[in-house]
Amino acid sequence: GKIILGDQILDRPDVHIDLEDRGYQFGDGVYEVIRVYGGKLFTMKEHIDRLFASAKKIKLDISMAPEQMQKLVEDLVKENKVDFGSVYMQVTRGAAPRTHMFPKPASNTKAVFTAYTNVVPRPASQLENGVEAITAEDIRWLRCDIKSLNLLPNVLAKQEAADAGCFEAILHRSGIVTEGSSSNAYIVKNGEVITHPADHLILNGITRQVLVKLCKENGIPFVEKEFELKDLQNADEVFITSTTSEVMPVIKVDGKTVGDGTPGKITRKLQELFEAKIN
Ligand code: PDD
């Protein structure tokens, strides 16, 4: 398949990333994952806007217009004939002799934009049956609102989940549930959908933003407030959301059954509403 480097669409073997790219050495960059449904990029503008917002928060100048980036990525999806899949895109602060401080403007170091596509089906059986999760301490930094390349704590938490035969690790700071290692986390209690406020401790997921709208339009109470591990254990329903997982029911947390052990009613309703959005 083809990939994007800078403002060009190239064959993958023709693309070389420098050994001293700051993304590689420092995780000095930002990224996005966008879903492709039936050849169309879902909530693309929201993802590109968030990429630029993340870049701005780390003082990274992407030096490309969002409109040009959008066009390039749309062309890539067409060229690779992706029907159902995803696009991964990232921007790093570029290649320069390794030193922590930013490259000097005079060095003319440019941000490096790359993107490629994956063909992946929707996780149909997991969406139908639900998944299991563990809980883990949230050991990340205090700017989780930035979609940064530094994912080591997320990687460690996800591996802990995988080692336990689970799909996701739901993170908490001293008992306050923040989000999943690569998803947002929610409980349903007495008919209310409850999730952590979109502050600096979580990533404000695009799927989460879609959900806020769906809840509003359909009279489902959506409450952004802190909740605790014990609320997670006593929830009527638990689910997570992300670009790749959509609205994913969680039927067990730390080995303990949620509700009656099957995806809950409100979770099902939200899945239905989400499904209608992507078709
Ligand atoms: N992860 N929180 C974290 C820490 C995430 O990494 C993600 C997404 C989300 C959900 O965001 P969205 O709905 O915009 O996908 C929340 C992506 C999919 C990933 O890293 O693969």
TrEMBL record:
EC main group: transferase
SUPFAM superfamilies in UniProt: D-aminoacid aminotransferase-like PLP-dependent enzymes
Keywords: Aminotransferase, Pyridoxal phosphate, Transferase
InterPro entries per record: Aminotrans_IV (IPR001544), Aminotrans_IV_CS (IPR018300), Aminotransferase-like (IPR036038), BCAT-like_C (IPR043132), BCAT-like_N (IPR043131), Class-IV_PLP-Dep_Aminotrnsfr (IPR050571), D_amino_transT (IPR005784)
A Gene Ontology biological process term: carboxylic acid biosynthetic process
PANTHER family: AMINO-ACID AMINOTRANSFERASE (PTHR42743), D-ALANINE AMINOTRANSFERASE (PTHR42743:SF10)
Protein name listed in UniProt: D-alanine aminotransferase
Organism (species): Siminovitchia fortis
Gene coding for it: dat
